[in-house]
């Protein structure tokens, strides 16, 4: 197999000529393996692989020597793959020529491992420092103590957790990045809406997604935990906030309002909200959450765009293809 001392990334693969039949080799993270059946009745595996620069799908058919390998790999497995560049219906669909599994021990001292895991574009340490400043900006003492108690409990997990499995900010430090961006937007917009209590809104922003540190699991590939499937991050976050509020002796009215922000922040019942936002602060937080989630999708599509692409593939969260070119001025 080709020398991989200088790895070729998914972005590099996508920028290879489409009609040359080039072969390449890369180290890739297995994100999902889905057994399927072809129209002729033969089994095959739809394998989603990628690295921090993007992902693509491989179809591994039953007569391939790699079929058994990918059948046994779990999400988070690592493979060294040799590929022939092919496209189907204008989408990258490489032919797998050869594959072998790699272990974390084999990659322990290699830069290849860090190449697999996507991280937030902003520095995680700087984001966390800023995040602490947002907590300190909450004026009401018991409300501030409640928020601080939540992060005293989950802070280390919160710092590195993704904000989603795939939809938005779905990478290491993504939850911290998403929440910090929301706090920036919150504080910028509050002067426009004096009806919204500033302390309560900021507190709600900071704790709204805390249940995700329990909902999600995995180091290299994110999946939902047992509690995440059975309860969901909205309920799990409500539990964290209620426990911290009682501990901090937050008055009943503020605690109920803060809990309501967590329970309603998803915006719509079909999107996972437990209730519809029914306070000024809850409406405010839910809309900022939706704004930053959507813009997070936009930012990631722009970061992962290939040279010469006019539009992205259709993004399920945006329900559209994104125009990638900058405006002509």
Question: Your description of this structure?
Answer:
This protein has twelve helices and nine strands. 42% of the residues lie in helices and 17% in strands. The strands form three sheets. It has a five-stranded antiparallel beta sheet. Strands 5-6 form a two-stranded antiparallel ribbon. It has two domains: 10-116, Nucleic acid-binding proteins (OB fold (Dihydrolipoamide Acetyltransferase, E2P), Beta Barrel); 124-303, Orthogonal Bundle (Hypothetical protein af1432). It has 329 residues and is α+β, with helices and mostly antiparallel strands. Strand 2 (43-51) and strand 3 form a beta hairpin.
Task: Explain the layout of strands and helices.
Elements (H helix, E strand, L loop, with lengths): L9 H5 L8 E15 L5 E9 L2 E8 L5 H6 L5 E7 L2 E2 L2 E2 L2 E8 L8 H6 L7 H13 L4 H20 L13 H16 L8 H10 L4 H4 E2 L5 E2 L1 H5 L1 H16 L4 H13 L15 H24 L26
Antiparallel strand pairs: 1-2, 1-4, 2-3, 4-7, 5-6, 8-9
Helix pairs in contact: 4-5, 4-6, 5-7, 5-10, 6-7, 6-12, 7-11, 7-12, 10-11, 11-12
* CATH architecture verdict of the largest domain: Orthogonal Bundle
Total count of domains: 2
CATH top-level class of the largest domain: Mainly Alpha
CATH overall fold name of the largest domain: Hypothetical protein af1432
Key words describing this protein structure:
329 residues; alpha+beta; OB fold (Dihydrolipoamide Acetyltransferase, E2P); Hypothetical protein af1432; 12 helices; 42% helix
């Amino acid at each position: 197999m080709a020398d991989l001392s200088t790895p070729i990334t998914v972005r590099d693969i996508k920028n290879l000529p489409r009609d040359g039949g080039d072969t390449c080799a890369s180290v890739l993270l297995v994100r999902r393996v889905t057994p399927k059946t072809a129209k002729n009745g033969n089994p095959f595996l739809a394998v989603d692989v990628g690295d921090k620069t993007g992902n693509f799908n491989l179809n591994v058919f039953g007569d391939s020597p790699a079929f058994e390998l990918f059948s046994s790999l779990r999400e988070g497995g690592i493979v060294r793959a040799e590929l022939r560049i092919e496209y189907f219906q204008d989408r990258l669909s490489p032919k797998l020529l050869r594959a072998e599994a790699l272990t974390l021990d084999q990659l322990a001292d290699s830069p290849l491992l860090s190449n697999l895991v996507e991280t937030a574009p902003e520095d995680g340490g700087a984001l966390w420092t800023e995040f602490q400043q947002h907590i300190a900006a909450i004026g009401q003492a018991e409300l501030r103590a409640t928020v601080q108690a939540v992060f005293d409990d989950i802070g280390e997990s919160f710092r590195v957790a993704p904000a989603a499995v795939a939809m938005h900010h779905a990478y290491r430090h993504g939850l911290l990045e998403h929440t910090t961006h929301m706090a920036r937007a919150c504080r910028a917009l509050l002067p426009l809406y004096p009806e919204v209590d500033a302390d309560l809104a900021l507190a709600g922003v900071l704790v709204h997604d805390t249940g995700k540190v329990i909902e999600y699991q995995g180091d290299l590939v994110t999946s939902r935990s047992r509690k995440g499937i059975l309860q969901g991050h909205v309920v799990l976050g409500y539990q964290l906030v209620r426990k911290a509020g009682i501990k901090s002796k937050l008055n009943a009215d503020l605690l109920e309002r803060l809990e309501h922000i967590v329970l309603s922040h998803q915006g719509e019942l079909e999107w996972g909200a437990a209730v519809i936002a029914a306070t000024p602060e809850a409406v405010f937080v839910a809309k900022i959450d939706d704004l930053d989630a959507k813009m997070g999708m936009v930012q990631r599509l722009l970061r992962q765009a290939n040279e010469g692409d006019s539009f992205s593939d259709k993004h399920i969260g945006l329900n559209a293809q994104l125009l990638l070119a900058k405006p002509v001025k």
